[in-house]
Amino acid sequence: MHAFEALLLILIGAVLLSLLARRLNAPFPPFLALGGAAVAFLPWAPELTLDPELVLALFVAPVLLDAAFDSSPRDLKRNAVPIIFLTIVAVGVTVVAVALAARALEPSMAWPVAIALGAIVAPPDAAAATSVLRAVPVPHRVRVVLEGESLFNDATSLLTYRLAVTAATAGLVVGWPLVAMLVWMVIGSVILGVAAGWLASQINGRIEDAPLAILTQFIFTFGVWLIAEQVQVSAIITVVVYGLVAARLSARRSSAALRVPSYAVWETAVFALNATAFAIVGLQIGPIWRALEPGQRSEYAVFALIILGVAVAARLAWVMTYNVAAQIKNRTVGANPPGGQAPPTLKTGLVVGWSGMRGVVSLATAYALPDNFPHRDLILLATFAVVLGTLSIQGLTLGPLIRLLKIRDDGQLAREVHLARKTVLDAGLGHVSKTEGAIAARLRADYAERMTALEKASPEDGRIFSEQDRLLGAVLEAKREALVDLRMSGRISDAAYFQLEEELDRMELSLTPVVR
Prior knowledge:
The chain is mostly helical. The protein contains 20 helices and no strands. It has helices at 3-23, 28-40, 52-69, 73-78, 80-105, 111-121, 126-133, 140-169, 176-204, 210-230, 235-249, 256-291, 294-333, 346-354, 360-367, 376-405, 412-432, 438-456, 467-488, 494-510. It is globular, with a radius of gyration of 26 Å.
């Protein structure tokens, strides 16, 4: 089967699995993992391979940039301590535990190879956890910690991975040269990320055409990753810093006409990349499994299942240890979380510990191993087992666990949304109050009505259900019907129809969500 046909079938399968997940009101990533496992053992599965050196840039860079762009530097700073411990210590504990288990199970596996395996399966993927948390709300701090962890634990694990791969294949220089290299990787990554973020905001701010602007965003994302690798800094830290800086600088320079299609394209691209990554790794697992002798299959399966258990247990043990220590500290000196956040509890600690689902980063990193890397097939199989096991077991049980523990949303995000709505409405009302004329008077009346409704609205987020918006929605539907009738009767050309349709689309986007 040709590569294009195989890719088309992969995307069709991803769409169907996504629809099934929505119908069952379940998170999508576990279904994606199960789909990848199904592809792995199809007897007529196509051969689809990629250059291992391009896999990380192709699959990890866009996914990481998308997550970094949506992250809040304020929230990351407020929760820096737990994020740092999860990013460095939790990853380190998992790497060591997995390496020890791998060496015990396979004595012929050298330490650098075992450490590489630990680094591959160590970093959780927050996208899987947040897909569950959308349906089962939790305190805002839990979500921030999980998303912040996913931004930087990839850097820790990938750095460990590269050092281990270098030690296993070419030998690693230790001592001061290694220290200098690590320092340069961190400092250089930050400098390059900041510079790229500033440059991207300057260039994109001058582009008014949506296709060109979106294409430029992808060029910068892949380009920043490749440049970071060329100058031997951390590509992950560089892309994260680039995303954080670009998001802050583009807020005033980007128009809604660019942001709306940009968000849609990026969401689609990340979805497609995740689906493709699972399928491609699944296609590598099938031939590996079929080439094994029956006795080897049982040995490989036992190895993979034990690595899965160790990876889950190591994270859970560290998170609960940290949580207990935080509880003792809070009882001794008092708890004072910044920004009015809810203090950590044993229940939220259990949720964070169980939110260790692995994803596309682990798959891409395993696939990126050189073809001649020792025990590559075993590592690929173990990685796929860890990703599949964590997504299917933890991903499908995280929601029921949250309900069982009776954890509730603390309302912090809703309160901030309510504050933002009121502040924005105040700014609009203040501006129009300085203007005279009939149009300004109508706007003042509309804003005053909205302010009154906002003050009476639920304190959750202050969403306003305006009668004017409902009427505008009905009017918009009437306009659309009239426009379609003109087109179908041949009284206007398709060119005229599409121009008017775009104008009506912009009107619809300006209405509140109640009419959508």
